[in-house]
Specification:
66 residues; mainly alpha; 3 helices; 65% helix
Length: 66
């Protein structure tokens, strides 16, 4: 049990860093088109905010249709 908390903290910090760096990419499109909103969700939504961004907020890369 004492080992689970440090693992959770490391996973949370890693996912937080990855989410924020992903939002900084200019080519990244997000649901609703407002990256500032998603940054606030990730920063202040804790685990729920991170999961919301990963599962819902990230738009699928647009496919070129020619």
């Amino acid at each position: 049990m004492p080992l689970l908390l440090p693992l959770f903290v490391v996973a949370y910090i890693g996912l937080l860093a990855w989410s924020l760096s992903d939002l900084r990419k200019p080519e990244r499109e997000v649901l609703g088109g407002n990256k500032r909103f998603w940054v606030l969700v990730v920063l202040f939504g804790n685990v729920v905010g991170l999961l919301a961004y990963v599962l819902v907020g990230r738009s699928v890369e647009s496919v070129d249709r020619e």
